[in-house]
Amino acid sequence: xxxxxxxxxxxxxxxxxxxxxxxxxxxxxxxxxxxxxxxxxxxxxxxxxxxxxxxxxxxxxxxxxxxxxxxxxxxxxxxxxxxxxxxxxxxxxxxxxxxxxxxxxxxxxxxxxxxxxxxxxxxxxxxxxxxxxxxxxxxxxxxxxxxxxxxxxxxxxxxxxxxxxxxxxxxxxxxxxxxxxxxxxxxxxxxxxxxxxxxxxxxxxxxxxxxxxxxxxxxxxx
Length: 222
Prior knowledge:
By secondary structure, the protein is of the alpha/beta class.
């Protein structure tokens, strides 16, 4: 099976080389979407061995994932995973994330930081609880880590998933698509690496409010 990895990246020159090098061991090709970075993200990703595609402007996580999805499908990817560019995820978790999809047990696997890990900062637990609750309320599917960036899809599932939101709301929208398209999935426990750098890259209160507003608009106005 042709395994592709998609890494959305914005101003990640501190981590992108290391991340690409680590995940390349588990994929036939890594696609980095440089989402309008103002630093050397694209150059370093390419140097590490990734195929780099660039947005001229910073459009957001959802837009980067949508671009990566279309490219991977056009290239004939059969198994596709997404992973964050900030070094938060352990590349060594990829085999157990990919395994149930490769074996055909489920169509989608979602890495969950909240099934086994205990050293998660309190504010991250709080943000995740709110995101999970909002996702369940709007879309009717309860998961333990709706905002996880580490996911795996088979080709047929990814073809069915529609990505409309361009920003952080995409994570909840993917959960919506699992429900709407009746895709089989499982959550797989993963480990997150929390550093001052990775913590600076995630959701904050203001971005969380903006994400909630966009989810409401997407839910009722589209």
